[in-house]
Amino acid sequence: MPNVIEITDLSAPELDVYTRLTDHQLRSRLHPEQARIIVESPKVIATALDAGLMPESFLMERRQVDGPAAGVLARCPDVPVYTADREVLARLTGYTLTRGVLCAMGRPAPRTAEEICQNARRVAVLENIVDSTNIGAIFRSAAALGMDAVLLSPSCCDPLCRRAVRVSMGTMFQVPWARLGTVKEDWPAAGLARLHALGFATAAMALDDRAKAVDDPALQQPEKLAVVLGTEGDGLNAETIARCDHTVMIPMQHGVDSLNVAAAAAVAFWQLRAR
């Protein structure tokens, strides 16, 4: 039976992780062993459990306990389940819960680019992408369309923030990922050098009259290819483009100048996937 605890005090400290800690505080870089993430919806929570993440507590509407959340609760019989009516939870969290279920979990330990790229043939590299919705959508496309790993520049937003995890449907628990450095000086020169040392050709997605079309046969020749995508609005830095082996663009029609980075990523991942 689930360990159900009725919420009677909205200020209870055990609820802080859901209501009073910022994303920065949840990451807890000074004390990594205390870092937490918030995972939303039974399906995404199940994906996180499958990946080996450890739940610490649940927060959900009462009707979820014997309903859609029953499957994940059966896998975690000793984990506290804090519950109340939807209206109480909305007052507590400040928003209506998507599918009525949140789970606090320990943050997985970081991995290195060298570790996750050891057997990879296709990787996505994200430069300075700061919108969590775009990060989540890119991870979902990476999982669906054949990317073996995702690498992030130091200035990208946290893929494990609540919104990114939700938008991705938990795919960042399935696709290995790592940061290419911890400070902005680690990118692009040092980060791209690490990729080249790992045997990757690099393809910068950029609007440039000299760029190859994304379906150019030459882009299928590298055994290992890193697809590099830039920040919302400005795209890739000029230095990044100059240091990449190829510049690649998606041909546009009807006067459209570009696609949203998440949409462009999906097109590029499909076309440049390993055959």
List strands and helices in order, with pairings.
Elements: E1 3-6, H1 16-19, H2 23-27, E2 36-40, H3 42-50, E3 55-61, H4 62-65, H5 70-75, E4 80-84, H6 86-93, E5 101-106, H7 113-116, E6 122-126, H8 132-144, E7 149-152, H9 162-168, E8 177-179, H10 189-197, E9 201-205, E10 212-213, E11 225-229, H11 238-243, E12 246-249, H12 261-272
Parallel strand pairs: 1-4, 3-4, 6-7, 6-11, 7-8, 9-11, 9-12, 10-12
Antiparallel strand pairs: 2-5, 3-5
Helix pairs in contact: 8-9, 8-12
Question: Would you kindly provide a brief summary of this structure?
Answer:
The chain has 275 residues and is of the alpha/beta class.
Structure description:
The protein is α/β, with parallel strands linked by helices and 275 residues long. It has twelve helices and twelve strands. It has helices at residues 16-19, 23-27, 42-50, 62-65, 70-75, 86-93, 113-116, 132-144, 162-168, 189-197, 238-243, 261-272, and strands at residues 3-6, 36-40, 55-61, 80-84, 101-106, 122-126, 149-152, 177-179, 201-205, 212-213, 225-229, 246-249. The strands form two sheets. It has a seven-stranded parallel β-sheet. The relative contact order is 0.14.
